[in-house]
Design goal:
Helix content: 55-70%
Distance between the termini: 54 Å
Oligomer: single chain
Number of helices: 14
């Protein structure tokens, strides 16, 4: 189903709680290291399948994948049972929580703030062949593709998200995943794929007005994506028009970029100042992204001759973000 690529960096990150049998293997085997399987041992195979399910229910999805990786369909391990346990494992690796019984069109339970590690992503890449081509798999593919994009691997995420869109069976899901595909394709520098995905998202979502089951933020996301498309074509004025009411972090950051390209420093200070007012905490260490934002705002303020903004920014960040010399 997916091109396999194994990575061995990172660590197993699926979360959960609960007890597991005392015979649990010590440590997490990396992807590609299946446990040995004794021939003609159906009872042992059945026990391993049950043990793998116990591990995933306890939140140890990586260990469960190591146990499952040596099992093949057989009398004691029917394919449908293997598929069901693999689905639980892969959901847990991607979303950080074991899936509950739910309709195929509902969003899977998700551990907010959870991010799969490199080993988890590698297990998913090489184990998707166990699952059926259906709407439930589309949910998993969408989550897996989004995780790849967040991990800085948008080029690998694009074909995964394209499959997720193809397998989606409702207009709402297709539009949502087409938009995610478009955003990721932009990040991968694949503007043609992004433009086509945007057309599909718009057609499936707005031919007769947006239905109630569509994501509420989809129109704003599409405006942002179309602004990216306009910028790629050199249409800065059109991009600014699309972003005029976008007060999201991404929207303000992109609008600031357009103003900087146009050397409209005062306008850049206004929009980046609004972003900084909620992105830069009053106390505590700043992240690299927050430091970069503070320095960017300082440079724009200096270019605009805005000494008031510079003074307030210095007082706010103090020594937490060394501003460029000479400002």
């Amino acid at each position: 189903l997916l091109a396999s690529e194994r990575t061995h960096a990172g660590e197993q990150t699926a979360t959960g709680s609960g007890s597991v049998p005392a015979a649990a293997p010590a440590g997490l085997a990396p992807p590609g290291a299946p446990l040995p399987m004794q021939p003609h041992a159906p009872a042992r195979a059945a026990a391993r399948l049950g043990y793998a399910q116990a591990l995933v229910l306890a939140g140890q999805a990586g260990a469960a994948a190591s146990v499952l990786s040596g099992l093949e369909p057989g009398e004691a391990t029917p394919r449908d049972r293997l598929r069901d346990v693999w689905r639980q494992v892969l959901y847990t690796l991607v979303f950080g929580t074991v899936p509950q019984e739910a309709g195929e069109q509902t969003a899977p339970p998700e551990h907010i703030g959870f991010a799969p590690g490199a080993d988890a992503l590698a297990w998913v890449a090489t184990s998707m062949h166990w699952l059926d081509y259906d709407a439930a798999t589309a949910k998993l593919l969408a989550g897996y593709g989004a995780a790849l994009a967040r991990a800085g691997r948008p080029a690998q995420a694009v074909p995964v998200l394209a499959q997720a869109e193809f397998l989606s069976i409702t207009p709402a899901m297709r539009a949502d995943r087409a938009e995610l595909l478009a955003r990721t394709a932009f990040a991968a520098g694949q503007q043609g794929i992004a433009a086509q995905a945007l057309e599909r998202a718009a057609l499936s979502g707005f031919s007769f007005g947006m239905p109630a089951d569509f994501p509420a933020d989809l129109p704003a996301r599409l405006r942002y994506d179309n602004a990216l498309l306009a910028l790629a074509g050199g249409h800065e004025a059109q991009a600014l028009k699309l972003l005029a009411t976008d007060e999201s972090d991404d929207g303000l950051r992109l609008r600031g970029q357009v103003y900087e390209q146009q050397r409209q420093w005062a306008q850049a200070v206004l929009v980046l100042g609004r972003l900084a007012s909620r992105a830069l905490p009053a106390a505590g260490a700043l992240t690299p992204d927050q430091v970069a934002l503070a320095r960017r705002l300082a440079q724009d303020a200096a270019a605009a001759g805005d000494t008031d903004t510079l003074s307030r920014l210095r007082a706010w960040v103090g020594t937490r973000a060394p501003l460029p010399a000479g400002l």
